[in-house]
Write a structure and sequence with these properties.
alpha+beta; 4-stranded mixed β-sheet
Length: about 280
C-alpha cells in the first residue's frame, strides 16, 4: 500500500496514480490487467484468500463475460468477513480446500472450482469448465480424487454427476459445446482429438472431433482461422490432405454451435452414407 511503499498520501491525489481499492493505488500508466487487479485485491483481503469462481477460471485461461465486471475471492473459513470493496465479490468457504498458484496468484484448486461453478452454470457449461480444468489439473483421475476431498460441500453431487461427460484432451470450449450439441441431437458422440495419418503411416494432423470407423472428421474453425490468412491456407491444405486419404471433412463455426440443427443434419447424412457404403 502507499504508506508501506513510502509514497506520501498527498501524492496519491494527483493524476500520476489511480485508486483501485480502498488504500490501494497503482501508477496511472500501469495497464490494468487481470493479474494486476487480482494482486491489488489480495492486499485488502485476509491472509490465505484465494481468487475463485469466475476469476479463477479466467486466470486458468477460460474467460467468461459474467466474471469480468468484478473479481471473485474466497477468504479462509477462519477469517473475519473483510470490508466491502467495490469490484470485489467475497464468497464464503466451509472447510479447508487445496489451493495453488497460477501465474503467481493463489487460486482455488481445480476440484473446488468445479464445485463452485456447479452452483452457477447449466450442466452443459459445467462440462465445458470440466473439460478445460482436466487439461490443467492432471486429468480426470486427479479431478475425481480432488472431489473426494470436497465431500459435504454444496453442489458436489451435481459436480460428480457431470464427470461422466468430461473428456480429456479437449483444446477449446467451443469444441466441448459442439460435441454436446451433436449428442443432444441424437447422434453418436464423436471422439476427441483424432490423429490422422496417411497410408504410409505419416502424420497429417489432428482433428478436433471425428468418427474413425465412418472416416468422418469435424474441424471447428474459430475466428483466428478466418482472420489469419496463413492459418486459413494451412487449414485448406490440411483438409485436402485428409480428403485424399479418404476422410470426409465437416467444418463448423460458432454459428453451428449456437444453431446446431443444420450442422447436425449434414453430419447425420455423412454418417448414414458411410454406414451404407460399408
Amino acid at each position: 500500500m502507499a504508506s508501506a511503499a513510502g509514497v506520501p498520501s498527498q501524492r496519491l491525489r494527483n493524476s500520476s496514480y489511480r485508486r483501485l481499492y480502498r488504500d490501494v493505488h497503482v501508477v496511472a500508466q500501469l495497464p490494468l490487467t487481470l493479474d494486476v487487479r487480482c494482486r491489488a485485491a489480495l492486499l485488502v483481503m485476509p491472509p490465505e484468500t484465494v481468487l475463485s469462481h469466475w476469476t479463477c477460471l479466467a486466470l486458468r485461461g477460460l474467460d467468461y463475460e459474467q466474471g469480468r465486471d468484478q473479481l471473485h475471492v474466497t477468504p479462509p473459513p477462519s477469517a473475519s468477513r473483510p470490508r466491502h470493496q467495490e469490484g470485489i465479490r467475497v464468497h464464503e468457504r466451509s472447510g479447508a480446500s487445496p489451493s495453488l498458484l497460477v501465474r503467481g496468484i493463489p487460486v482455488s484448486g481445480a476440484a473446488r472450482t468445479f464445485v463452485d461453478m456447479a452452483a452457477l452454470v447449466p450442466e452443459d457449461e459445467l462440462v465445458v469448465i470440466g473439460d478445460h480444468l482436466l487439461r490443467r489439473a492432471g486429468g480426470l483421475d486427479a479431478l475425481v480424487n480432488g472431489l473426494a476431498h470436497e465431500r459435504g460441500q454444496r453442489f458436489v453431487l451435481r459436480a460428480r454427476r457431470v464427470l461422466a461427460h468430461l473428456r480429456e484432451g479437449v483444446d477449446s470450449p467451443q469444441e466441448t459445446r459442439l460435441r454436446l450439441r451433436i449428442v443432444r441431437f441424437g447422434l453418436p458422440e464423436p471422439e476427441v482429438n483424432i490423429t490422422v495419418r496417411d497410408r504410409a503411416g505419416g502424420w497429417l494432423g489432428r482433428a478436433e472431433l471425428g468418427y474413425r470407423k465412418e472416416r468422418v472428421l469435424i474441424q471447428y474453425e474459430g475466428d483466428i482461422h478466418r482472420t489469419d490468412r496463413r492459418q486459413w491456407r494451412k487449414d485448406i491444405a490440411r483438409d485436402e490432405a485428409y480428403r485424399d486419404e479418404g476422410w470426409a471433412v465437416l467444418r463448423a463455426t460458432a454459428d453451428d454451435v449456437e444453431r446446431p440443427r443444420r450442422f447436425c443434419m449434414r453430419l447425420q447424412r455423412l454418417l448414414t452414407a458411410a454406414h451404407q457404403a460399408a
